[in-house]
Amino acid sequence: MGRARPVWGLVALLVVTGWAYLPLLATGFCWDDAALVEHNRLTGDLANLPAFFTTDLWQTLELAGADSGYYRPLMLVSLAVDRALFGLSPAAHHAHSVLWHLACTAALWGLLRRMVAPGAALLGAAIFALHPVQIEAVALIAARNDSMAACFTLLALTLLLNSHRQPRRWLRAAGAGLCLLVGLLCKELALLAPALLLGLDLAREGRPKGWERYGALGVAALVFLGMRRAAGISGSLVPKADHWRIVGEHAAGVAGTYATLPLFPWPLTPARHVLYLPEPAWPNLVGLGVMTGLLVLAVVYGRRRRLVLAGLVFTAVTFAPSLWATLDKGLLGERYLYLPLAGLGLVVAAALDGLPHLVRVAGAAAIPALVAIQLRLPDWQSSLSLWQAAHDDQPSAFTHGGLGFYLYQAGQIEESRAHFVGAVGGEPPYRDACTHLVMVHLNLRRYEDAVRYGRWGLTRRGCPPVAETLGNYALALASTGRWDEAVQVTRQMDRDPMQHALVVLAAARVRAGDPKALEELGPRWRGRVPFERQVAALLRVAARNSR
Asked: 426-545, what's its fold?
């Protein structure tokens, strides 16, 4: 019976964690879920299964985006299974994601149990399972690949941890290689497994043990890279040089933010952007100093110092790829701390290994964590509620843009207008909102304002002259009778995704008395409303506003 007791501790932790996330079942699709889950053109039919293994993740959307470089076919399989069994039920999708978090918690506990005493293992697993910073990775269905990849990576490490001392080590190595391959097909993060195994080996054995263990992981990585290449995944994962400069300029703020979140995870928000970190910055710098001090104490006074160091290596190695996401999009996502928190769990477990009453410590620490989770989960009711909370917590030009976008999508056009103005007018300007800044005024039929804000954004706020912004600006100019300016703007466009330039050019030619304008330009029209009606409507609006 004594050996069974640690398992009951894990069972209790899983039950508490599952209960904590029950409110998710009453929430909907949120943020990236709308595109990747709700409006995925492939996952609605399991007959598309072969295509999952030959397609960039973000090329599966109804409105396919640019090549992202993400090859994650098993993430698509998981979404397809959800839809096949439950349709587009948000509750079922969320329940599936919670199950992966529970599986990952169990996998981490199994790994820790091979290295530390039962109480320490339970404490480390509880830190991972119930830390409020994990909410984003669990609540965002589009981030499920984090828990999927983490689960199989931890299983692979568990199989290999002591395999060189056990019989049938080749079979365990093969199983670990298979687990790693599955993890890689969920997310590329699993490529870090050999480095994680090396860190554990150095801490526990003083050197690498068993070449077949590393060979199995290497083979799995090569198979994955071969599958990725055969699928033709071409998106670049290398950040641009300018992004390196921007993140470098804000390195202290980035480090302080990520160091503070594990210590004081509040407020929790999806809207941390490298250019819009909250001011003053000193609280995060204090957090960085406190976290550094605690980690130094863990290394100096920890009961299992070498294992503490292995946990720090685990945390650093698994956190490093998140910097690429920050360099790529500027975002400081809480979900990027998902697997690094397993490393911090190992640090705490190793530092306190063997001390009495650790189970009680885990129970006491769980109480504020559970309160934070219950306070946070209602924000995930919808994209609009999530970004409203983000703007209320830490208002910035970035949150103005995000909230304005979801207000616009919800049909609250007038309410979104002020937020787009705030986004482009902020310091620094959030220039991704430039297109909507003009578009919203067109929707409200405030054509002079559309021209004024379009000119302001392009000439004074640094809005990039992308086709989407220029097309709306040209339409606004034409709607106010500024035909020469409108035509000149269309000539700056290298493409016409919204086909505004096509309507403007046709209307300008019809107005000038060209009888062949509609006949020549009409075949290029792809809109739902007949081309002639669109051109006629623009001419009527321009005539009315030119009086």
From this structure: 1.25.40
Kindly report, residue by residue over 261-287, the tens digit of the pLDDT: 999 998 899 889 989 988 777 788 899
What is the domain partition of the chain in residue ranges?
A: 17-380, 426-545
Q: pLDDT at position 212, please?
A: 87
For the full predicted model, state whether its pTM sits above 0.90.
yes
CA separation (Å) from 320 to 64, 138, 251, 258, 424?
Answer: 28, 21, 13, 12, 32
Closest Cα to residue 424, out of 443, 398, 448?
Answer: 398
Residue 184: closest CA among 155, 225, 143: 225
Per DSSP, what are the bridge partners of residue 40?
A: 61
Among 60, 221, 30, CA closest to 142? 30
Of residues 377, 410, 423, the one with CA closest to residue 21? 377
Cβ atoms of 434 and 472 closer than 8 Å: no
CA quadruple 230, 220, 106, 83: dihedral, nearest 10: 20
Centre a 10 Å sphere on the Cβ of residue 206 and count the other Cβ atoms it contains: 9
Nearest alpha carbon to residue 140 among 57, 64, 43, 34: 34
Instruction: Work out whether the CA dihedral 172, 178, 184, 186 comes out positive or negative.
Output: negative
Structure tokens belonging to residue 123: 């404490």
H/E/C letters for each residue in 340-372? HHHHHHHHHHHHHCCCCCHHHHHHHHHHHHHHH
- CB-side exposure of 481: number of CA atoms within 13 Å? 7
Contacts of 130 (CB under 8 A, 6+ apart): 13, 16, 17, 20, 365, 366, 369, 370, 373
The pair of three-digit structure tokens given for residue 328, joined into one six-digit string = 């790529």
Give the C-alpha separation, 131 to 268, whole Å. Answer: 12
Q: pLDDT class for 153, splitting at 50, 70, 90?
A: very high
What's the pLDDT at 2? Answer: 44
Q: DSSP for 180-218?
A: HHHHHTT-GGGGGHHHHHHHHHHHHHSS---HHHHHHHH
Asked if 282 and 398 touch (Cβ cutoff 8 Å), the reply is no
| Burial state string for 477-507 with b = 16 or more CB within 10 A and e = fewer than 16 | bbbbbbbebbbebbeebeebebebbbbbbbb
Are the C-beta atoms of 403 and 386 separated by less than 8 Å? no
